[in-house]
Design goal:
373 residues, alpha/beta, 13 helices, Alpha-Beta Plaits, 31% helix, binds zinc ion
């Protein structure tokens, strides 16, 4: 095989828009799954290529991170190839029999396959050598979670970022106002000072963030740390399967094209422009902005899908003019300012403010906050 052929097999060289269209029109029935595993991977680059070639053949789409410390995958698998996919996983020693988090609200989640080598599978900012990462908190299933969080003295903490908990969270949970997981860990550690003897329960989207965070807290002198196994995704599956009381309100934010899975009918967020109840995230249609924010249908209409008057003006310019404006502008993906969000009191408009300062920006290269789940 020539080097070029090889490269073509290992990369997606098709335009994003073409891929998106292909995904939306795709008739194939798919299952959206996520999984992670901490394991020692001696050669992540080699493993990455190995996964890409096999999964590409099976028609798998989605985003996967591989590191020396393990694998973190959020993907969709054609139903017809699901068994073959599972067999492939089982052929890999540290993934044999792994529990897959299956999305409740299925549909078109990813439009291309991306497998990347990273330093870590979750950007946690922790020095792993300084504590025992295997000494995690007690894992809780949905039933045990409901029971323990029902106790008066239990402290329940949402380990996700503010834009995730904004549209949905567990009743009674503390939802720290943070932009990154790194910040979250620091803040939670501070917040819990003096509460060493309390039962602490933490949760995230699919469970991976709590694996390290719980071990870190134990290391820091909190013995009674618990974590929701499989996160909100697995909790929801169990609640529906067993008919348990659902304590999660709103939507579960997910890092794919679906943006979120609706878990309960409650709408707990507000449109960032007019303040009316709304929990639909969208990306600003000004390509140079691409801000991820919450926008109601009326505002989407009024601002033609843009986040501000500034961006609204931009999209009305001819494409050539827009291109000129984009030139020289640094890619500011993932940048947002929570302070601005806090200052923007509900009901206030964010019109006219710099689009760089509100909400979350997600570039096509990556979802906000990833690699996390
Ligand atoms: Zn609105
Ligand atoms: Zn914008």
């Amino acid at each position: 095989m020539t080097c070029n052929r090889m490269n073509q097999q290992l990369r997606n060289l098709v335009d994003r828009r073409v891929l998106l269209e292909r995904m939306r029109q795709g008739e194939d029935d798919r299952t959206t799954v996520s999984f992670y595993q901490y394991a020692r991977i001696p050669n992540p680059a080699f493993f990455r290529d190995y996964l890409f070639i096999h999964w590409n053949e099976l028609g798998v789409l989605g985003r996967t991170y591989v590191a020396h410390e393990g694998i973190n995958a959020q993907i969709s698998v054609p139903s017809i190839a699901f068994q073959a996919f599972q067999e492939h996983l089982n052929s890999i020693s540290f993934l044999n029999g792994i529990r897959l988090n299956v999305a409740v609200d299925d549909g078109k989640s990813f439009f291309k396959l991306m497998v990347k080598v990273r330093a870590k599978i979750v950007a946690d900012g922790l020095n792993d050598a300084s504590f025992d990462v295997r000494d995690t908190g007690v894992h809780l299933d949905a039933e045990a979670f409901n029971s323990l969080t029902g106790n008066e003295g239990t402290i329940l903490i949402d380990m996700r970022n503010h834009y995730e908990s904004e549209v949905g969270h567990f009743k009674g949970a503390i939802t720290p106002d943070v932009d990154t997981f790194r910040e979250e860990i620091e803040l939670v550690e501070d917040m819990l000072q003096g509460k060493e003897e309390k039962d602490i329960v933490m949760y995230c989207t699919g469970g991976i963030r709590c694996e390290k965070a719980s071990a870190w807290l134990k290391h820091k002198g909190f013995p009674n740390v618990h974590q929701l196994e499989g996160g909100i995704i697995e909790y929801t599956r169990q609640v529906r399967e067993k008919g348990l009381d659902n304590r999660f309100i709103g939507k579960n934010f997910v890092f794919d094209e679906r943006r979120a899975e609706r878990i309960s009918e409650d709408v707990i967020a507000n449109c960032h422009q007019c303040g009316s109840p709304c929990d639909d995230h969208t990306n600003c249609l000004n390509v140079a902005c691409n801000l991820l924010f919450i926008q109601c249908a009326r505002c989407a209409d009024e601002y033609e899908g843009t986040c501000s008057s500034t961006c609204h003006n931009v999209v009305q310019l001819p494409e050539e003019e827009q291109k000129k404006l984009r030139r020289g502008v640094k890619d500011s993906s993932k940048i947002f300012n929570k302070a601005r969000l806090r200052d923007t009191s509900r009901g206030d408009s964010v019109n006219g403010e710099s689009p760089n300062e509100t909400g979350v920006r997600s570039s096509e290269k990556e979802s906000p906050g990833s690699p996390e789940a």
